[in-house]
Here is the input.
Amino acid sequence: MSVLDMISAKSYKIDGAGTELDIFEPEGGPAVDLRKAAVIGCGFVGSASAFALMQSGLFSELVLIDSDRDRAEGEALDISHGVPLSRPVKIYAGDYSDIGDASVIIIAAGANQKPGETRLDLVHKNVKIFKSIIPKINDCGFGGILLVVANPVDVLTYAATKLSSLPESRVIGSGTVLDTARLRYRLGEHLGVDSRGVHAFIIGEHGDSEIAAWHSANVAGIPLNSFCEMRGNFEHEEDMIKIAEDVKNMAYEIISKKKATYYGIAMAVKRICEAIQRDEKSILPVSSVMHGEYGIEGAALSIPAIVGKDGIEAKITINVSENECSMLLKSADAIKSAIKEADI
Here is the structure.
């Protein structure tokens, strides 16, 4: 048990093997096992996320649920065979009765994005799936944090927020965490530096209307354009357009070549879970319902937020240019239109 968990936990239980397990009781909510997570949907994204979590050491119990029970059992077996080479974790196929005390439920269930299909094209199929899944989560007495990964993630995060009995702060979409990683990776390549030293965000929709927030971007505290010139790059406007387009289209490029994307988003899932489990209060561009930020209401989209053990602690309205703000409002309108079409 970590020092953090000892401080946070209000009571403990002992499992059949005599191992002490952490139990946290959110204020006014049911008990939550801080070392237990569940993944709903064992397709490419769900199984890759489970594999990443198995290696992370964040959880000691991982439940996999899928409408195809054999698929869940097969993935659980396959991933479990890596446990002797990694860290102890119990991985098994289960059902909704097994996940009421999980600290995090990752929803990766839904139809996959096909070549030529936008994320928003998936809205009707996947909202219907969520209308089936979320009531089952409510019925099992879940009081942890719901992490939505399925696409279109912003629309589905909005749907999950409206359908769930959880407080809004405990419903999080993976949002543009992956897009932001792609932007930083691409900028690292462009500048010849470690991408971890690049500080820049993709905001708005996880999709075609996403925005690269260039106005606040920097490398090691140095404004991006100044750092570019230090590295011999002076075509700022041209480079920004190309890099933003590359990032926006990366998913389409990957899908055209290998039919699906899953490793990158699996790492994004792991990163968000780290922030939650360790109460890091990390600033991540996750998706959540807006309540006046940048003048936006009635949509879920990504802006930087402080993420910790209670979910989203606060949203951060970073400085954006007038054009970026205008693009963000258009992005919100696209999401609101999809929400309206889906009749959420």
